[in-house]
């Protein structure tokens, strides 16, 4: 019995996977996501392009492309603006404050998640309530404490006060709730103490939450302006946001140099986000699991 070419083609069509046509909602959703992404990156692209313009080009045609790529703005910023000193201060403050935030938030979150003590839930509610308090309300008492500790005009005054964050405690507590208690009991039965259990068992299993908190903390510390403006009262301890803010408030403002320095200050955070963006989504998704 022979099989005709028509029968073979019919069988092939019947077993071949059909290509689904995108639904109207999928097309609209994709268009909204692409449009939102373009709106979000447009200011960054504009700043990057404008950083290569001269001052007449910037003031005359803000939206036009530069006639030629010139690094004169960056050279002027690095030589006259003392960019490297402010960059060093921002890196030290951001890195140190992030490490301290991870240590304090993970320890507090672990205690609230895995230890049963009287008033635990009330203490957690109080910590959450502090999120709703504006920073401007508590600036004066914190500043008075920093004065008493003689930390004004020092990098430690920029590092220590903002390190304890209720958001970090909440994030770590929610993640520690997903770690089984049986895992901790097994470590204790093997002879591990509380500190060793926390360092060797709990923290290695909390890497997604730690990465998310580290990225959030870096964004906070790198862009913080109000607190460094109050504590740093001499140029030697200025961070990049404070130095750029003071530069833009001068009578004769070189806007082209300011834009170049702003874009240069954004590059480290953009690079970090591009390399670690998948950890943000993964960590936030896993933090809500219980």
Can I get a quick summary?
The chain is built from 15 helices and no strands. It is an all-alpha fold.
What order do the SSEs take from the amino end to the carboxyl end, as H and E? HHHHHHHHHHHHHHH
Q: State the major sheet.
A: none
Distance between the termini: 63 Å
The CATH superfamily title of the domain at 83-240 and 265-287: MetI-like
Tell me the overall shape: globular
Task: Determine the structural class based on helices, strands and strand pairing.
Answer: mainly alpha
Regarding quaternary structure, what we see is single chain
Strand content: under 5%
Instruction: Kindly provide the name of the CATH class of the domain at 83-240 and 265-287.
Output: Mainly Alpha
Helix content: over 70%
Task: Please count the helical segments.
Answer: 15
Key features?
290 residues, mainly alpha, MetI-like fold, 15 helices, globular
Descriptive account of the structure:
By secondary structure, the chain is mainly α. The chain has 15 helices and no strands. α5 runs antiparallel to α12. The protein is globular and about 70 Å long. The N and C termini lie far apart (63 Å). About 2% of the residues have low confidence.
């Amino acid at each position: 019995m022979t099989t005709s070419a028509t029968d073979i083609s019919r069988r092939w069509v019947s077993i071949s996977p059909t290509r689904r046509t995108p639904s109207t909602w999928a097309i609209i959703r994709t268009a909204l996501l692409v449009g939102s992404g373009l709106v979000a990156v447009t200011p960054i692209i504009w700043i990057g392009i404008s950083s290569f313009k001269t001052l007449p080009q910037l003031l005359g045609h803000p939206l036009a492309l530069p006639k030629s790529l010139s690094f004169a703005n960056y050279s002027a910023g690095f030589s006259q603006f003392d960019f490297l000193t402010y960059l060093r201060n921002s890196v030290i403050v951001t890195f140190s404050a992030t490490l301290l935030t991870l240590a304090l938030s993970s320890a507090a979150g672990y205690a609230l998640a895995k230890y049963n003590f009287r008033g635990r839930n009330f203490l957690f509610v109080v910590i959450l309530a502090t999120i709703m308090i504006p920073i401007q309300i508590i600036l004066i008492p914190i500043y008075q404490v920093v004065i008493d500790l003689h930390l004004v005009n020092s990098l430690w005054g920029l590092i220590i006060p903002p390190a304890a964050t209720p958001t970090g405690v909440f994030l770590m507590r929610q993640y520690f709730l997903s770690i089984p208690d049986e895992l901790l009991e097994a470590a204790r039965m093997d002879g591990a103490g509380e500190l060793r259990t926390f360092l060797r068992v709990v923290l290695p299993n909390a890497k997604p939450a730690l990465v998310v908190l580290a990225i959030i903390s870096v964004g906070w510390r790198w862009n913080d302006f109000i607190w460094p403006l109050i504590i740093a009262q001499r140029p030697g301890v200025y961070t990049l946001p404070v130095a750029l803010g003071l530069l833009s408030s001068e009578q004769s403002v070189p806007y082209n140099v300011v834009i170049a320095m702003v874009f240069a200050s954004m590059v480290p955070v953009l690079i970090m986000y591009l390399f670690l963006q998948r950890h943000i989504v993964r960590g936030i998704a896993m933090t809500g699991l219980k």
